[in-house]
Amino acid sequence: MLFKDRHDAALQLIPALEKYRNTPGVIFAVPRGGVPIGYYIARHYDLPLELLLIKKIGHPMNKEVAIGAVSMEDFEVDGRYALPPGYVEKEVREISSALHQRYKRFMGEYHKPVDVTGKTVIIVDDGVATGNTVLAAIRVMRKKNAGKIVVAVPVASPDSADRIRKQADELICLYTPDDFMGVGQFYSDFAQVSDEEVEQLLKQANSFGSVA
């Protein structure tokens, strides 16, 4: 095991992000496990903490096969698939509604997502297995005209790290083990993060940073 828990993982990541101190930026945390990581990094560097909500669109014949992804503002679809008329529109509508409801629950009824135009976006999670969520997030941030996109994670599979490195402006990953089987194997304590914990951390983070 490399990390005691998510707090320990965040503490080990923090020095690697020192170059972004005093840089106009935003931390985007992948829920739920990435939120504690993002919280401690955002607190250390006094940066705003945002929730990164992206969900895949599953194939109609096999929901586990991702044919696209939906964020709160946009969506993308792999054009290689022949899909039933109206399927994508229906999925996007339902997923987008669910994402907006979740965002309101965690971030508050009146919180507006931060404008990332020209800012440094730091995407964080407690680890990366397939990398699909992070890769989708990178594409979303490109569309939003982020100034620089950094992915910061404690551990990732070598294949996912290679894919992310090609798409992000920078990947900060402390460990890419050849024997990667799952993120949890590299934590002594990998307890599930509850919705209540996410809410509490995000509430505390309301006072962090400014992107002005």
Tell me about this structure:
By secondary structure, the chain is of the alpha/beta class. It folds into 2 domains: 6-52 and 116-203, Rossmann fold (3-Layer(aba) Sandwich), CATH 3.40.50.2020; 55-107, PRTase-like (Ybab, Chain: A), CATH 3.30.1310.20. 34% of the residues lie in helices and 22% in strands. The protein has 6 helices and 8 strands; from the N terminus they run αβαββββαβαβαβα. The protein has helices spanning 6-13, 34-45, 87-107, 132-143, 158-167, 195-204, and strands at 25-29, 49-51, 54-59, 62-71, 75-77, 120-124, 148-155, 170-175. Strands 2-1-6-7-8 form a 5-stranded parallel beta sheet, with helices on both faces. Helix 1 packs across helix 2 and helix 4 packs parallel to helix 5 (158-167). The longest helix has 21 residues, at 87-107. The radius of gyration is 17 Å and the shape is globular. The termini are far apart.
Helical fraction: 25-40%
Instruction: Provide the CATH top-level class of the largest domain.
Output: Alpha Beta
Radius of gyration over alpha carbons? 17 Å
Q: Determine the CATH topology of the largest domain.
A: Rossmann fold
Provide the succession of SSEs: HEHEEEEHEHEHEH
**What overall geometry do the principal axes of the alpha carbons give?**
globular
Helical stretch count? 6
Strand order of the largest sheet: 2-1-6-7-8
Largest sheet: 5 strands, parallel
